[in-house]
Design goal:
homotetramer; 10 helices; two-stranded antiparallel ribbon; about 20% strand; globular; 19 strands
């Protein structure tokens, strides 16, 4: 854990140095301006699915072995207009009964039905963020330029509809136990050491194809302190992200909306997500509710995710299922 | 298979009898006007999830055994504004890059992102229809009255957010092979005998908790003959529905948007869906693409469905995953 | 002015009388259950525009004479997502620059543009409510039954697109001066006597075809006390409504969202609007900002209203223009 | 009229010259790349309303004199989802009866109502295009840079909510009579000479503050040949635009969706609108139905436009009223 004090010192130093926030050697190595050597992707120059390439039959079969009890758990949070949402985003769902004004029914069987209309951003609530969601200076995964592949009616490349089913091992890392707090403080950066300590404590070693989900207690704030929930977030920093990526995970995320420390002490805007999605082709999962798993100490499980195939979308509401 | 000739005869007879379409004894037993003895539900008077009660740990563990190859398949069809949609329904998705006008980026790391807004009905494309979707004279599953539980911002009971994960055996019935046609004709009613013949041919016996999906070849029409796709549909009739319900299945559906013969020869409006959802608490799945399974003769598989938890919705876009 | 004390007494009496709130003889005469003699309309059994029939050339020419200074004033309030809205209603507008990701432009002339998408209810902000907006037990103006003319994609009769331009005399009644308060208290019912006193004070006599707008100071609450703004409203009661209708006005309204006292002391739901629209075919205008007119004591003026012709809508955002 | 033959020759010449389409001296003078001397605006460096500054009391009073008969005419076309729309744009309106499922009513007065929800682009149907709608290389009227004033929830400058009422003289130019065709051919460019000839024929001289509307017969295509309606348009070219701007008009437009010849023979993207809005602060009005005026030879009239005040929008649906 990097302490709040350190964070403050780093930021202060930035101001001393003329407004330029110093970045670690690690970060500099990944710096955008320094180089553009992050593409083509190691999965091939025309690849559009990134780390989903790791989802082999072997990964599936290994994950199957985690099912012992025949129990299942939805990892999504329920979504409605009251859920706190990022900036401009909102969600409205309307229930309508077409043709049933004044109690009208249809046919001799008096057919009636409810129909629903959604006016919403796909980024409200539990969501899968595809690798086309975040870019660096308008360049996205595998060097795809926004100028070329983005249209107002959806992306022509990297769309969420191309992501194969995610059937693999899911791993939950309980950061609340690690820090000994029901809700991990908002300015806590998870380091490599933090993650390794939790893995050791939980008896797990990460492996290729894993989905790694953090439990921070942060969902407890929803409806109680939406302001704090949206303004600041605990989460991994760039070092931890790099290490996770090197373990060849397929997706990272958890119970916050940022899935990384926010605001980032370096002054960068979501650098971890940017690194993971754009440079490494790793997916992100937001607002994942792992509380029941943590309660029962289910640290690993069969993770199954099928996302609605909205053509040209780069994110979409989902409900991954844990089976154990 | 009930033949076209029979169908026509039945309808003709209806007109002869003064506009009253004759219904079978079976249907009369289920008739709305005759009685209201279809609730409380056998799952309890306050039950809101119907046949999802059948999804026990045992069902999960049994289904796990179907995974041999470690292969996975998305069962959804991709969705965009061009997909043919039922009546008033439509779907539009917009890709927007907030704050990035004129190529703006954020932070020293030049963060850019794509965000999506959906204006769409949840009933366009592959969807899970909850048991609150269809009612009889404004009364829904377990006797819930629309007057009481429906609001413009969603249902207060029977919402899709209450449906537990569907992890069970999925069964595909290939009706195209049964009828020897790449696309089963639109006026074909699947009878009990038809279904039993296909099950026998495929070497399957239905069991409690199954999800039963029909392959009719109908998806081939999309983009080629959207008009036909929307106007008429092959599918099960009421007798077959009753028989399927008696096998204690959890959900039925397939590659059409109606999941039953449409228009129904009795002149009723979606009587099968009405029976299954409202009276029996059985879920419906529309626009399920089982073509790759049929091609490889994968007649049964582990079926995993996690639906986005839109509070108060009675249907929602999904992408169930077949694992085998 | 009916006092708060009286109101409370009436309501209290209602409870004493077994829960039945006593209504005035006036109201009883208009009672729904007592009779259905309010149609056909006096404008003809097939009429769809109600009091807009009163907008003759003579009315137009008379109103023209009110223009002395060549000054103009928009009577609408600006609309965005922050404006307090009735119950389920909301309004979101998005600015999008299609095809301009990464600063793209089109053509040698480097064309760029802003485009806007609205997801909103037509009843947020200044609006014209057509006579198809409100009904009595699912029956609307001129006896049109909801079961017959309403569809999910708009009404087939009484739509706002059929309303002719409203070019007539506008009259502002300043209730703030009448009551000697910058903001008229929320439980104030404007009686016939109140209106007549204001008219006399302002030197005006109502005439056929007038649009009558009340200034209550209520807009001052927006952004300061949205809760009060939405929960309670000063306004005319049924007696005043009847009297105004008898003056053959075309539209009534003002700077509140209800245009009548709300909640109504009788326990009825918007009885004044119901009476005016459904029974008398008189239009309603909400959130009309007449403050600059009141400031300059412009009590009458040329009123010009052209509403966007949304087919099948019963209300729509507008911006009537005062010219004087 | 520039002939089709000339147009083809110009385009052909462009290809001969290595893909560079030759532009007239006039156009070169206005060329973007050549200079950026088109701001600050002549109305002041902080001006946000452009030619609306010309709408003086004198202009209003002069226009009042055109009212002789007391007749009124809506200049808008009715809008629904079937209206042909520019590219990505669409419009859907839903009629909903909140709380009235199963025929529910509210209160002892059995209150019922229709409510409408719009999911639509403000650029479908008759619309006012504000001067913030179109820019040059992401720079808009008065040098406002998109990077500075555009947000996803609306523009912070140049918004339609700032445009004062347009009360002035409206002038209709009947191009169908000029060309002797019920529908002016799509590739017809209106020149200065064409406009002057029509003005002379109709006995009108343009004056400061006018709104100039062209009648081309093009609305006749709607519902009959939507493809042609959207693909090509007759209209003014750059020379005519410059001349109109020099007459100090406030707005130009008419019965097409482009209000200029489209595609432009120079290969530029809407250069006329770009010039008028961005450089001259002149407003644009699309899909104006002047057919009844032309039928009755009403060439000039009192034009009154009040647009809904959608904050931060650069275009909005309107219905200007002609009074004569």
């Amino acid at each position: 854990m990097k302490t709040k004090q350190l964070t403050k010192a780093v930021v202060a130093a930035g101001f001393v140095l003329g407004g330029i926030v110093p970045v670690s050697a690690q970060n500099q190595k990944e710096s955008v301006s320094a180089k553009a050597d992050w593409y083509p992707s190691s999965y091939g120059a025309s690849d559009e699915i990134g780390a989903a390439n790791l989802l082999t039959s072997d990964v599936v079969l290994q994950a199957m072995k985690l099912v012992k009890l025949g129990k299942t758990l939805p990892l999504a949070v329920p979504i409605d207009k009251n859920l706190p949402a990022f900036r401009h985003r909102s969600f409205n769902l309307y229930n309508i009964q077409p043709g049933e004004q004044a109690g009208n029914t249809t046919g001799p069987n008096k057919f009636t039905f409810n129909d629903e209309l959604v006016n919403g951003w796909t980024g409200v609530g539990t969501q899968l963020n595809g690798i086309g969601h975040i870019g660096i200076n308008n360049v996205y995964y595998n060097g795809n330029k926004a100028a070329d592949f983005v249209t107002v009616e959806g992306v022509k490349k990297l769309g969420i509809e191309k992501v194969p089913p995610m059937v693999t091992r899911g791993v939950v890392l309980d950061m609340t136990a690690h820090y000994g707090k029901a809700i991990v403080p908002g300015d806590t950066e998870f380091t490599i050491a933090d993650i390794q300590a939790v893995l050791k404590k939980q008896g797990i070693t990460l492996r290729k194809g894993d989905v790694v989900l953090f439990n921070t207690g942060w969902l407890e704030l929803i409806g109680k302190d939406n302001k704090q929930f949206l303004e600041v977030e605990p989460g991994i920093g760039m070092d931890a992200a790099k290490w996770l990526a090197d373990q060849q995970i397929v997706a990272f995320g958890g119970d916050t909306w940022a899935s990384e420390i926010y605001p980032n002490p370096t002054g960068e805007e979501f650098p971890v997500n940017q690194f993971m999605l754009a440079k490494r082709g790793i997916y992100n999962l937001e607002l994942i509710d792992s509380r029941p798993l943590v309660r029962d100490k289910i640290w690993q499980f069969l993770f199954v995710l099928g996302q609605p195939l909205y053509i040209g979308s780069t994110q979409v509401n989902v409900n991954p299922i844990a089976i154990y």
